[in-house]
Amino acid sequence: MMEPIFIKNFTLAQLEAWVESIGERSFRARQLFKHVYARRIRSWDECSDLSRLFRVQLEQGTRLDALEIVKKIEAADGTARYLFRLPDGHFTEAVLIPDPPRCTLCISSQVGCALGCKFCLTGSLGFKRNLTAGEIVDQVLQVQYDIRSRTHITNIVYMGMGEPLANYEPVVNSIRILTDPNGPAFSHRRITLSTAGLVPQLYRLGKDSAVNLAISLHAADDALRSELMPVNRTYPLSELMAACRAYPLPPRKRITFEYLLIDGINDKPRDARNLVRILHGVRAKVNLIAFNPHRNAALYEASSEERILAFQEILQKARITAMIRKSRGADIGAACGQLAAECAP
Ligand code: SF4
Q: pLDDT, tens digit, for every residue of 80-109?
């Protein structure tokens, strides 16, 4: 028996080709997109504007959901961590971060991650597999079904498990789906993709998508960054920063550089001065985040508030916008670098 087709894997153009392949007119694809993403139907029976025959075809040959919420843990600060089961039994995660008037969903692009950053729990567990475009999109939909009208997602960040640019085509297709005016219709301005710095894919992304870009930087000299983030051995800072300078930013937009501050490792005044140096000529803003300790990075601790403020001051004196960001959901293991699908039942 044929595997049912997972409808959320399709961009609108792909869905048009598919509906034509089963003998329907291509405009039906836009109708399906509206039912799935604007009306958020849970069964094809709800689509009374489709013929009964077409609904039966859809019921028998496709499925609407890939992910199942198996656990939801809410933190004291309102952050909610969702654990999803995938059809093959793997698990992935998303984190909802209400911060009125914003409500941001942090989504995953892979199960695990191959890049092995030393401070990251996801990285310490290794790589299992890429998510499909539909499995990425379905994280948004499943959370939308769960929260219904209580609140709505305003922003999406690709900062959960995995390196998005290592799963390039599905990630770019998921952005195409999420921003489609006939579909979920998120603005590109409301979506941020965060990468550890896969340079060739960064050049491609600049041509393929207009989402906001964030770089997980965490160190401003090659020796330290290669130690913390092995990807730096393949794409050193000179190449990464050249790709950032060439990134086609719209007017008034900047690239966000994420910098976890780890006590005694990357938080010295010299590190801040190195950061000022490498950001020269880049339209940049910096998010400073105290490291979130976890069991697989026992040697690392968060920088003190005093150190973080001193670091920020050096950046600000060099006229670089530097915000101190609080990690949300640390008490439920949902903060930056803490996702590992480890609360699987
Ligand atoms: S920080 Fe990001 S790129 Fe590095 S191991 Fe963790 S998930 Fe992968």
A: 999 999 999 999 999 999 999 999 999 999
Catalytic annotation on 74? no
- Furthest C-alpha separation in the chain: 69
Domain that holds residue 42: 5-63
Q: CATH no. for residue 308?
A: 3.20.20.70
DSSP helix/strand/coil, 176: helix
For residue 187, the one-letter residue type is: S
Q: What pTM does this model have?
A: 0.94
Tell me the pLDDT tens digit for each residue of 328-345.
766 656 555 666 665 444
> Is any atom of ligand 1 closer than 6 Å to the C-beta of 123?
yes
Length of the chain measured in residues: 345
Token pair 């049912």: residue:
4
- In total, how many domains does the chain have? 2
Residue type, 184: P
Which residue's structure tokens are 């379905």? 138
Task: Indicate if 93 belongs to the active site.
Answer: yes
First to last CA, the chain: 30
Helix (H, G, I), strand (E, B) or coil at 217: coil
CA 24 to centroid of ligand 1, rounded, Å: 43
- Site to probe by mutation for ligand 1, drawn from 92, 106, 108, 113 as the one with most ligand atoms within 8 Å of Cβ, is 113
**Most ligand 1 atoms within 8 A of CB, residue of 125, 157, 163 to mutate:** 163
Position in ligand 1 atom list of the atom nearest CA 194: 2
